[in-house]
Write a structure and sequence with these properties.
Rossmann fold, 8 strands, 17% strand, 288 residues, binds S-adenosylmethionine, eight-stranded mixed sheet
Length: 288
């Protein structure tokens, strides 16, 4: 499969205007806003270390604007927890596995899992400016990087993943909040590249917008906050018709089995996640 959009930089990696101090590209600004919201909602030392002060101010403002729309606010807690649950489930009984987190942004999850499981090999990938800034934040907070964690910079819409990973294959590859920023032909290109970097039986875990999730996010008190988020992060380019569309799109690039779950379905498995949770994104678990 050839890259349908050529080697040019992805829209999220290009310089664009947005809230000052939150980064030069839409990609970086989306990671900053999420880190800011998380640090305000869940002020743990790690979430605080990963957010910049401007990000927390903007995050606090977005939360105030969304006040009363708890199902959408709960998504900020539920989505990373759902990923953690799915990663742990996939890696159960595979202590020396290789886990790759694409578009890791300012999520501390790769760092946390690398520390919790010293035998696990962890690679995280994001745009160069995000990775450089993340490394500075770990250093500033005196959070030592564990030896089983590697950080790699790449524009994943332009560079094949196999090149980024130098041909190394993984047991699980995740992409939290990435695919919606690409048109569907590019999503398929990324999914195909991920499959080439998975071991036999490996799993790609991602989430993507559908017509139903966009409709749900277009109503309620959180709409204004979401509009500000989207204006600074970039709009959804890849929107699926429905879960069956995910099956076809991932199936067409060779995945042998594709499971889909709506956000609230996964949240039900997680007793510590506050409910209700909005149907804000569709989870796709694609098996190589
Ligand atoms: C919505 S944020 C999600 C970040 C993180 N996964 C989280 O949940 O907080 C999207 C992430 O995708 C990254 N990203 C966007 N376009 C990218 C690209 N072309 N290549 C690599 N990373 C990209 C951004 O830098 C950003 O960290």
């Amino acid at each position: 499969m050839t890259d349908p959009l050529g080697e040019q930089a992805s829209p999220t990696a290009r310089e664009s205007s947005g809230i000052l101090g939150l980064g030069r590209s839409g990609g970086q600004r989306s990671a900053e806003m999420l880190a800011g919201i998380r640090a305000e909602l869940m002020p743990t030392p790690e979430y605080i270390a990963m957010a910049r002060p401007t990000g927390r101010v903007i995050g606090g403002m977005l939360l105030r604007l969304a006040r009363g729309d708890q199902p959408k606010i709960n998504v900020v807690i539920a989505r990373p927890e759902a990923y953690r649950h799915l990663i742990a489930q996939t890696l159960r009984d595979k202590p020396g596995a290789h886990y790759v987190e694409l578009a890791s942004g300012f999520l501390p999850r790769p760092w946390q899992l690398a520390r919790e499981f010293p035998q696990l090999r962890v690679t995280e990938v994001d745009l160069p400016e995000v990775i450089a800034e993340k490394q500075r934040r770990f250093a500033r907070a005196k959070l030592t990087l564990p030896p089983n964690l590697r950080m790699r910079s790449a524009d994943l819409g332009a560079v094949p993943l196999a090149e980024v990973l130098a041909g190394e294959r993984a047991d699980v590859i995740t992409a939290e909040g990435l695919l919606g920023y690409f048109p569907l032909e590019k999503v398929q290109f990324i999914a195909a590249g991920v499959r080439q970097s998975l071991k036999a039986g490996g799993v790609f875990i991602a989430d993507i917008a559908t017509k139903e999730t966009i409709a749900e996010l277009s109503t309620g008190k959180g709409v204004q906050a979401l509009a500000i988020f989207r204006r600074n992060a970039g709009s959804w380019l890849g929107v699926l018709d429905d879960p069956a569309h995910a099956q076809r799109l991932f199936g067409a690039v060779g995945y042998s089995r594709v499971e889909t779950y709506k956000m609230p379905e996964l949240a039900e498995r997680l007793p510590h996640v506050p409910k209700p949770v909005a149907n804000a994104t569709l989870f796709v678990i694609a098996h190589n």
